[in-house]
Write a structure and sequence with these properties.
The protein has 245 residues and is an alpha/beta fold. The protein has a single domain, classed as Rossmann fold (3-Layer(aba) Sandwich). It contains seven helices and seven strands. A seven-stranded mixed β-sheet has the order 3-2-1-4-5-7-6, with helices on both faces. Helix 2 runs antiparallel to helix 5 and helix 5 packs antiparallel against helix 7. It starts with 13 loop residues before the first strand and ends in a 13-residue tail after the last strand. It binds zinc ion. Zinc ion binds next to loops.
């Protein structure tokens, strides 16, 4: 990657991962996230919900689930080297594509100023979870809005300015066109997933993760990989495509 941001005198490039529930990012892109962190990128997680419906335990309450799952997410983030975790605390299962939500994500992008955004592919077919569908769509719409000053101009006070994201990578995609070798970070990915104890239960998550990563790895001739659909937001894309790792 040739471009770096220079916000607040900080020359480190930034990655923002925008997703729906604690553990989404660990399942779908955390091997890549760990590589970004190791390479010196500043990584921020943004969660639309705190997973307050994620339990079959008849005694679990939404409030307990939020506390448990936010703590699990913070622990997983530490394992991966993520520096900031932002919880937007929408209700689990009720995230919708809307102008207010787009405005909210645009503000998060303008404050966090990422060079790279990772999120759900809004065009994945037959995605059952409404939050996953809504996050992908809204994030892309917010990336487009955040770069133009006439969108939500009321946000542009106290030094906050419009912001242009350079690259978007969609996970959970039907149309992968970009693979990241995660052979060196797959153990971190598994360790981060195990932090989500309330969700993992007694499943052998290590073997599940390795099996899936092996399939993606075969596409580029490495042991383990994660698959994305890459969407360049700036031209020429060949100058921006590959992180320098
Ligand atoms: Zn999810």
């Amino acid at each position: 990657m040739t471009d770096t941001s220079t916000i607040s005198g900080e020359a480190r490039p930034r990655v923002m991962v925008i997703f729906a529930h604690p553990d989404d990012a660990e399942f779908l892109c955390s091997g890549t996230v760990a590589r970004y962190a190791r390479s010196g990128y500043r990584v921020q997680y943004v969660l639309a919900t705190s997973g307050d419906k994620g339990s079959n335990d008849p005694d679990a309450t939404p409030e307990q689930l939020v506390a448990t799952r936010e703590a699990e997410q913070q622990t997983a983030a530490k394992v991966l080297g993520i520096e900031e975790v932002t919880f937007l605390r929408h209700k689990d299962g009720e995230v919708e594509v809307s102008i207010p939500f787009r405005r909210e994500i645009a503000q998060v992008i303008r404050v966090g100023r990422p060079d790279v955004v990772l999120t759900f592919d809004p065009w994945q077919r037959y995605q059952i979870h409404p939050d996953h569908r809504a996050i992908g769509q809204t994030t892309l719409d917010a990336v487009a809005a955040a770069r133009d000053r006439l969108y939500y101009p009321e946000q542009l006070t106290n030094g906050l300015t419009e912001h242009r994201v350079h690259n978007v990578y969609f996970f959970a995609t039907d149309a992968p066109n970009y693979y990241v070798d995660i052979t060196d970070t797959i153990e971190q990915k598994i360790e981060a997933l195990l932090c989500h104890a309330s969700q993992i239960g007694s499943r052998d998550i290590g073997e599940f993760v390795r099996a899936r990563a092996r399939v993606a790895g075969a596409e580029i001739g490495v042991e383990y990989a994660e698959a994305f659909h890459y969407l360049p937001m700036m031209r020429p894309p060949e100058l921006l495509r590959h992180p320098n790792w």
